[in-house]
Input
Amino acid sequence: MVTMTQDQRALLNRRWLRIACLTGLLAVVLVISVALRWERSWYVTINWTESLTHWAFVVDKNEEPAVGDFVDFQPPANPYYANINFVKMIVAGPGDTVECDGRSFMVDGVIIAIAKTHSQAGDPLSLGPCGIVPDDHFFVVATHKDSFDSRYGDIGHVARSRINGVARPIL
Output
């Protein structure tokens, strides 16, 4: 059996204390690094209107949007909403065809939205684009009848450059 002197024990305890402190410091640096990287790549947003059944979303800024995804985006300047992001669902992407029949919008023969003739304020609403969705653009809608989305000319196709990220519903 090996016996240690009191000085040897004290030295060993100091070494373990240093190792523990360095390990703890490295763990803190790692956690902060991951948190900062995560914070820069996602955020939480709120849908302030009744256009969707969900009202809270986690937005991933690094995920590429695809048909079926909710996206958080900056709408073009319009007479109804200023300085507010929208969350809508992509129903058609680049190269997809959006067909129009009167005020009905269809993708693959399925009605995805019906445009109203007037806004809630009584203003006439122009129709959004029909035909092939251009490169780097998306056709977005929400299920609510009053949703202000691609079915209207003031929104139209949403450019990829306006999309902040893919939004995943959390509430």
